[in-house]
Amino acid sequence: MKKIIAICGIELSLIFKKRQNYLMMFAAPLLLTFVFGSMLGSNDDKLRLAIVDQDDTILSQHYIRQLKAHDGMYTFENMSESKASEKLKQKKIAGIIVISHSFQAQLEKGKNPELIFRHGPELSEAPMAKQYAESTLAKLNIQVSAAKTVAQAAGENWKAAYKTVIAKDHEDAAPVVKQKALSDKKEGASDTASRAAGFSILFVMLTMMGAAGTILEARKNGVWSRLLTAPVSRMEIGAGYVLSFFVIGWIQFGILLLASHWLFGINWGNPAAVIVLVSFFLLTVVGIGLVIAANVRTPEQQLAFGNLFVIATCMVSGMYWPIDIEPKFMQSIAEFLPQKWAMSGLTEIMANGAHVTDILGICGILLVFVAITFTVGLKALRA
């Protein structure tokens, strides 16, 4: 273990010895976060959204009340579809949530009604707002299912049982809602949160792609051969390099996380959830770096192909702009890219206060990426 840590320490010193690396690792992402966050963000603390209730039933009205409970981040206003469309065109509101005519009917059948969320392409907070609307709908669906079960057992109408269920739920959740609202007000939901996450992911990947090229440089300069003559195994050498890439990624992401919190007031959410999610993502990036390093011959080629891959896939994954504005085929491609899942996880943590247990599915997907990239990369490097 000491040998692995020693190799890791040497690689870290080489990376942080070059002053120009600090510009790429820290200054550039923070500057772009500020610029793009200012351009795409809103000057208001709360995001103004219109609600068009085409169903106008008990469930649609309760859904609206549940949406408005999160008043620390969003301001909802009921209005007609024509008025909402006009206000959206005039940029007086950020988006429109349309509740369809079959909303209650679909919920009674145990199905999820389709929600239509319309917004302009400049709305960087669109994924967060959409996820909030969908998670609130999922909660409502659970309440309706519980009411139907209670009604069936008691032999009464489900609407009567539903009133009992939501009354109890409201009683249990009231202190939490109040605490959440105060927390949001205190921290301030920054308009640059999405851009901070996106640019942090982008520049961490760029740094780690360059760092992975040190394996090729070590082979080219004979460092690898000299290390093999020492009392250290090939596995220990490889583990030392992998650990150094992972630590470099965490140092960069950790500093960006803290700096964006202090400079822009961004609340990243539950620390444990962020640590677990980012760790899985960084391991995935290390694996991608190994795969590219195994298929090129020089550090220059590693840097060129690595940067091309990172920039192109980050575009498709919605790191620069909301993924909702992309064509459907690009959104389908994004499903097979780790950045998309990392961004989804961070959005879930920041927007909905997700904990570790809430992002286990996303972590599982990232773990699959880790397994595939490490298997392919390490096998090719041994060849």
Describe this structure in words.
- The protein is mainly α and 383 residues long.
- It folds into two domains: 2-40 and 191-382, no CATH class; 47-187, abc type-2 transporter like fold.
- It has 16 helices and four strands.
- It has helices spanning 2-17, 20-40, 58-68, 81-89, 103-108, 126-154, 158-187, 193-212, 214-220, 223-229, 234-264, 271-294, 299-316, 328-334, 338-352, 360-382, and strands at residues 47-53, 74-78, 95-99, 115-119.
- Strands 2-1-3-4 form a four-stranded mixed β-sheet, sandwiched between helices.
- It is elongated, with a radius of gyration of 24 Å.
Summarize the topology.
Layout (H helix, E strand, L loop, with lengths): L1 H16 L2 H21 L6 E7 L4 H11 L5 E5 L2 H9 L5 E5 L3 H6 L6 E5 L6 H29 L3 H30 L5 H20 L1 H7 L2 H7 L4 H31 L6 H24 L4 H18 L11 H7 L3 H15 L7 H23 L1
Parallel strand pairs: 1-2, 1-3
Antiparallel strand pairs: 3-4
